[in-house]
Amino acid sequence: MHKSTIRVLGLCLIGAASVAATVYSSATYACDGLANPTTCNADAAKPIPVANLAQLTDDEIAYIYLQANQFDVEEAELGAVRGTASGVKQHGEMVAKDHRGVVVAFQGILTQNNIEPVAPADDSATVQHHLAVMKDLRARSGADFDREYLTQAIIGHRAFIELVSQTLLPAARNPSLASHLKAVLPAFKQHLAMTMTAAKSLGSDKD
Length: 207
Description:
5 helices
């Protein structure tokens, strides 16, 4: 049976460890053909609080959040183009559309509240992780791509939910910024549930 092994490198969809309030440990997560994605990566994106939560500014929160959304858009667009199963293509199209909408709405909030996104001191680990995921996905095709894409989508959405709920929302000082982060969480959870459903369907096809 196909095994897809994903290495989560350092920070996942968050800013650098020097300023971000959550650090994601490097680990290897194996998913057995995505037949049981509920147990796949069960410990992924488990946050480790650090002392400098108060140092995360609204400007840095805005940057980290926009970056995470953009990375999701890029991965989802790849899924829409490269996916072979109809569920994978539909997933990619919907996730990309939804996250693009989130970015537009969030940028309006930033403009209204004079918040200027500022990159953390060093977010290179985040960028390198995203580039590694994209490179790995582009090297795959067919059913192999479909499985890996959905696996990464599960990992990414779990990490995104943890990022918003455990790091960005508690640190946000601007009320409008905090309100947006709180309001968007149910949509991210819905994306995760939809992704897991698609993964289960794909896995059952391979049994």
